Automatic annotation (TrEMBL):
<keyword id="KW-0479">Metal-binding</keyword>
<dbReference type="Pfam" id="PF01261">
    <property type="entry name" value="AP_endonuc_2"/>
</dbReference>
<dbReference type="GO" id="GO:0008740">
    <property type="term" value="F:L-rhamnose isomerase activity"/>
</dbReference>
<dbReference type="GO" id="GO:0019301">
    <property type="term" value="P:rhamnose catabolic process"/>
</dbReference>
<dbReference type="GO" id="GO:0019324">
    <property type="term" value="P:L-lyxose metabolic process"/>
</dbReference>
<feature type="domain" description="Xylose isomerase-like TIM barrel">
    <location>
        <begin position="12"/>
        <end position="156"/>
    </location>
</feature>
<protein>
    <submittedName>
        <fullName>L-rhamnose isomerase</fullName>
    </submittedName>
</protein>
<dbReference type="InterPro" id="IPR036237">
    <property type="entry name" value="Xyl_isomerase-like_sf"/>
</dbReference>
<dbReference type="InterPro" id="IPR050337">
    <property type="entry name" value="L-rhamnose_isomerase"/>
</dbReference>
<keyword id="KW-0413">Isomerase</keyword>
<dbReference type="InterPro" id="IPR013022">
    <property type="entry name" value="Xyl_isomerase-like_TIM-brl"/>
</dbReference>
<keyword id="KW-0464">Manganese</keyword>
<dbReference type="GO" id="GO:0046872">
    <property type="term" value="F:metal ion binding"/>
</dbReference>
Length: 293
């Protein structure tokens, strides 16, 4: 289902025309058929549906249409399949977005049932949003299903995760660990767009950034943190987190990679492989892939 389809100009599953909504739902049901054939577990949904002007459509009615569509697709899921609902506070719509925040996504997932969970895209929030709070709450409610990791400075920039605010990534990963979310039940994904930097090295760097944030979060002395919190030692509690964050974990991660039998320096290994030069040479004269590929 592509937001570039003219039928979806005014929405897909929330469109005022029942025929367009049926087309969108049929496509989602087809996706579940593909999940059956491939053994896929997760149906991850992000809707670009929304409005640009006050009065353009009925806000509450669009939520009713969304709920109806999600329910139809949810009922089609198999026992080992689940639905992940992603939110985004604006863009491409500018007045209302039909799933604009974690609360809206959570409310729909809660009503649907245990096989519906929220996907947190770290770039889909207003500036200053406390994402780690959202993560902690969703984990507490057993409604966190996935992450789309990336970085943002202004809007949905889709830059390398950890590039804009590595301390935020550390705080998020601490709450993931604190809430028992470092398991296969949480899908950790990269959702990024590499426009000016080479794509494969950017992905490698992104994975390394997540590894470093996770390692630092695992170093938090949780006993010392709990003691400081219980005694009201504000600065002491903050210092426990900062000590872990300021630890250089790169040598430790290099050792772990060596123990796994892989190169301790992934970026250097990629450069030495010659893969980048090889694929450039092989693709001379080819056609560039794009959104329609």
């Amino acid at each position: 289902m592509s937001s570039r389809d003219d039928d979806y100009k005014l929405g897909s599953v929330t469109h005022p025309d029942p025929a367009v909504r049926r087309k969108a739902v049929d496509h989602l049901l087809e996706c579940v058929d593909i999940m059956d054939a491939t053994g896929s577990r997760d149906l991850k949904l992000w809707f670009s549906d929304g409005t640009n002007y006050p009065g353009q459509d009925d806000i509450a009615a669009r939520q009713d249409r969304l709920a109806e569509a999600l329910s139809t697709v949810y009922d089609r899921l198999g026992d080992d399949q689940r639905m992940l609902l992603e939110y985004k506070f604006f863009e491409p719509a500018f007045y209302t977005t039909d799933v604009p925040d974690w609360g809206t996504a959570y409310a729909h997932c809660l009503k649907l049932g245990p096989k519906a969970q929220v996907c947190v895209d770290t770039g889909h929030h207003a500036p200053g949003t406390n994402i780690e709070f959202i993560v902690a709450l969703l984990l507490r409610e057993k409604k966190l299903g996935a992450f789309d990791f990336n970085s943002r400075f202004y809007a949905d920039d889709d830059l390398m995760v950890g590039a804009a605010d590595p301390f935020q990534l550390f705080r998020i990963m601490y709450e993931v660990i604190r809430g028992g979310g470092l398991t296969p039940d949480i899908a950790f994904m990269l959702d990024q767009c590499h426009n000016i930097e080479p794509k494969i090295p950017a992905i490698i760097r992104s994975v390394m950034n997540v590894q470093e944030a996770t390692a630092k979060a695992l170093l938090v002395d949780r006993d010392a943190l709990a003691t400081a919190q219980q005694s009201g030692d504000v600065l002491g509690a903050n210092a426990v987190l900062m000590d872990a964050y300021n630890t250089d974990v790169r040598p430790l991660l290099a050792e772990v990679r060596e123990e796994l039998g892989i190169d301790p320096d992934p970026m250097a290994a990629y450069r030495a492989s010659g893969w980048a030069d090889r694929i450039v040479a092989e693709r001379v004269g080819g056609e560039q892939a794009g959104w329609g590929a």
